[in-house]
Amino acid sequence: MLMLANYVNNSNSETKNMFERKMKIRVTGLVLLLISHCFAVMSQQMSDAERKSMEKGTLYPNLKGAGQGVSGPGSNLPPEKMQWWEDQKFGMFIHWGLYAIPATGEWTMFNQKIPAEEYAKLADQFNPKHFSAAEWARVAKEAGMKYMVMVSRHHDGFALWNSPSSYRHFNSWETAAHRDFVKEYTDACRKAGLHVGIYYSPLDWRFPGYFDPKGLPDNAALLKKQTYGQVEELMKNYGKIDILWYDGGWLAHKGSDADAAWFWEPLKLNAMVRSYNPDVVINPRSGMVGDFQTDEGGADVKGPIIPFPWEKCLNLNATSWGYNKAQQLMPLKQIVVMLVNTVDRGGNMLLNVGPDPDGVIPPMHVERLKEVGKWLAKNGEGIYHTRPGPFQPVDGFYGSTHNGNKIYLHILKMPDSVTTIKLPPTNQTIISCKLLNGKKVELYQDKTGVRLNMTGVHLDSLVTTLVLKTKEN
Ligand code: GLC
Fold it and tell me: Are 377 and 397 in a shared domain?
């Protein structure tokens, strides 16, 4: 009995020791993992140039209204040709290229000072077996997105299509993959009923002339020739393109895209673009005033309604636009709130994914997007095809959109101990208020404004939509 008790005790203490040892190993492992994760994120801190490139695409705090850059007769679309774009509200941005292989972001070549010849070797490994543009389009649709913008060529110079103008044949057609991904993408996008957007970077780090256009004019001229040639290929060979999204018109990573207009001659460039695609919506980064303005990065969207077309572009994985081992996935609520805040201020939101070297969007990104799609499936009526207002947004509390005789009020969060929403006076008569697809909400309107009694109203854990019907005129 004693022996048995001893044995039990011994084995108990052995199990305990073993358990403690295992725990120690696990805790140490976890700490190491955490340290290495922080290290991975830290070691991928942006270079100054990368950070600046992001900051120059920022609308806040001073809203740059008309936009910077040159313009001329017919260079920009009239407001009526922008309506379809303003109806879309939500799109998918895709950064994918050779930089997916090192998995440290699309600025890897520049940040790690990799010589062009060395970097070019990545093309021998770039041969995605599971790339499926149809799958990308499926994911976008399931997320409730209405358009896509695919990076056809980033600052590293590697073109994802059969590009005869590509300097030194640096493209996916003449290297290991031997595929025209732009063709596959544009076909899939259209087939899925999504609007087709193409991102193209005039900047190409392989040209020393980019960094010194005045000192090395011949080399800079080669770069410009490539840009004109490639933009023409993209506009001519892939059917109707709905959006052309330039990035990196600035020179030597200095000044603004508009400052570099003397070099690129964007009016000439975009006149050529419009000769193939007269109604293409062009962003502001070629040095020409854009058809819309951009607000880049994950900073919150605040303040009043923005009275011109604009787009918030941001990244689902905050670490970088291109595929990255270090993941900082945006929380679901933050995405929905960002989308609502953008739409309530008149913008579209272009949310980026970075597929892996095989062309696969990381499953946790797909999952997250699916959740956004679920919210949109219920609340889309107050998002798509709407226009902002009539009520100016109140940061952190509510914002509104409207369409026909309906006003959609988005409640982000009810302030503590508030049970009545007091909206400012409006000259429209509001005849009813209810939760979108739900119960009636008590309403009272007079000269001082509109009051909604929120007692007992069940709020959505993400963002709640109320519908206020107005009297038809
Ligand atoms: C920045 C970066 C670039 C990214 C882009 C997305 O300008 O240079 O890496 O493609 O923003 O908007």
Answer: no
Minimum CA distance residue for ligand 1 atom 11: 54
Task: Report whether residue 106 contacts ligand 1, using a CB cutoff of 6 Å.
Answer: yes
pLDDT value of residue 378: 98
pTM, full prediction:
0.90
> What distance in angstroms lies between residue 53's CA and the mean position of ligand 1's atoms?
7
Q: Are residues 319 and 442 in the same domain?
A: no
The more confidently predicted of residues 65 and 313 is 313
Looking at residue 315, which CATH number applies to its domain?
Answer: 3.20.20.80
Mutate to test the pocket of ligand 1, among 58, 92, 98, 247 (most ligand atoms within 8 A of CB): 247
Give exposure, 272-298, as e/b (b: 16+ Cβ within 10 Å).
ebbebbeebbbbbbbbbbbbbbbbbbe
Give the domain range for residue 6.
Answer: 2-44
What are the pLDDT digits (tens) for 35-50? Answer: 444 444 444 567 888 8
Instruction: Report the domain count for the chain.
Output: 3
pLDDT at 68 over 90: no
Among 382, 415, 431, where does a domain finish? 382
Bridge-partner residues for 313, per DSSP? 296, 350
**What's the whole-number mean pLDDT along residues 340-357?**
98
Give the per-residue pLDDT at 441: 98
On whether both 304 and 443 belong to a single domain, the answer is no
